């Protein structure tokens, strides 16, 4: 619960539907002295509980992820969409070919603002409804890495603001906007970075992955970019996902190429492949590079 004590609930992510059916047969069985209710839940509920457990004591809980944005959405649109919320920063990400990804990451002022933002989940921004989910500080910095240069900045500790702020002229290609209009000078502790450079000057796209996979969707998919993001939402210990790309063919179908850096010697291509194949709407996964 919010006080950090066990509330008697648990969530588990299973490998496939067969395991799910087996788990549901355990409903009303006894574990020690208690009768346990086992029921199917959804991805949103699972992620909610997982994030609570994984949150570090030193992390701020003031970050959200917006999915399903129209391609033309701007930071101003997002601030308007999140009416009633105090927004510190908006980061709009792009695909490997420089097109909008339909995703935005937002840093809010307080945890109360996060709760207000979550009330906007599935509300419409123009012609598309937007998914709003809570993320934590480490997730936020991981997902926005390469879009904002933080290499020369010491990240403030929790509840401590940076001592100085730099003035950056944010341009359209950066897709990072922290004001009400594009192309204006704004005060921020983050500096713009060119698409091909970040930190030590090496492009995220240029860095060769340790593993790479071809992901084949099942049936007709209306938004392949959403499926790519679902695959990247997988959290495997020691795996850092690259941006990935969608490759369309002449029949309006597409496959997904997704690479990753491996920082855990116990994780191999087969483990990552099995996790990817468990993602909803994924039909098959082929190992391209191992």
Explain how this protein is built.
21% of the residues lie in helices and 29% in strands. The strands form five sheets. The chain has a six-stranded antiparallel beta sheet, with helices on both faces. Strands 13, 14, 15, 16 and 17 form a five-stranded antiparallel beta sheet that branches. A two-stranded antiparallel ribbon has the order 1-2. The chain starts with 16 loop residues before the first helix and ends with a strand. The protein has helices spanning 17-24, 43-54, 75-81, 111-118, 137-144, 224-232, 269-277, and strands at 29-31, 34-36, 63-67, 87-94, 100-108, 123-125, 128-135, 148-149, 166-169, 176-177, 185-188, 191-192, 211-217, 239-241, 245-248, 254-262, 282-289. A hairpin with a 5-residue loop joins β15 and β16 (254-262). The chain is globular and about 55 Å long. By secondary structure, the chain is of the alpha+beta class. The longest helix is centred in the first third of the chain and has 12 residues, at 43-54.
Key words describing this protein structure:
single chain; 290 residues; alpha+beta; six-stranded antiparallel sheet; 21% helix
Radius of gyration: 20 Å
- Spatial strand arrangement across the major sheet: 6-7-3-5-4-10
How many strands, which pairing sense, and closed or not: the largest β-sheet? 6 strands, antiparallel
**Secondary-structure content class:** alpha+beta
Total helix count? 7
Extended strand count? 17
């Amino acid at each position: 619960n919010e006080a950090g004590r066990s509330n008697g609930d648990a969530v588990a992510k299973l490998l496939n539907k067969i395991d799910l059916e087996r788990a549901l047969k355990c409903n009303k069985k006894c574990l020690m002295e208690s009768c346990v209710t086992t029921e199917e839940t959804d991805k949103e509920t699972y992620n909610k509980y997982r994030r609570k457990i994984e949150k570090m004591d030193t992390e701020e809980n003031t970050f959200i992820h917006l999915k399903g944005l129209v391609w033309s959405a701007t930071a101003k649109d997002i601030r308007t969409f999140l009416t009633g919320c105090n927004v510190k920063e908006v980061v709009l990400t792009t695909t490997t070919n420089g097109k909008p990804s339909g995703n935005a990451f937002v840093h809010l002022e307080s945890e109360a603002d996060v709760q207000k933002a979550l009330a906007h989940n599935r509300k419409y921004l123009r012609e598309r409804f937007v998914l709003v989910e809570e993320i934590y500080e480490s997730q936020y910095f991981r997902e926005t890495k390469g879009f904002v240069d933080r290499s020369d900045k010491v990240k403030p500790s929790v509840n401590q603001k940076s001592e100085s702020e730099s003035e950056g002229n944010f341009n359209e290609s950066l897709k990072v906007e922290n004001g009400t209009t594009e192309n204006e000078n704004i005060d921020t502790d983050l500096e713009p970075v060119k698409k091909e450079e970040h930190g030590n000057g090496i492009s995220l796209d240029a860095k060769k992955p340790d593993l790479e996979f071809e992901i084949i969707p099942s049936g007709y998919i209306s938004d392949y970019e959403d499926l790519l993001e679902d695959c990247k939402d997988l959290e495997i210990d020691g795996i850092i996902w690259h941006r990935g790309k969608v490759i369309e063919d002449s029949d309006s179908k597409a496959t997904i190429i997704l690479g990753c850096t491996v920082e855990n010697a116990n994780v191999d291509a087969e483990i990552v492949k099995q996790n990817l194949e468990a993602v909803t709407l994924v039909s098959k996964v082929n190992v391209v590079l191992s």
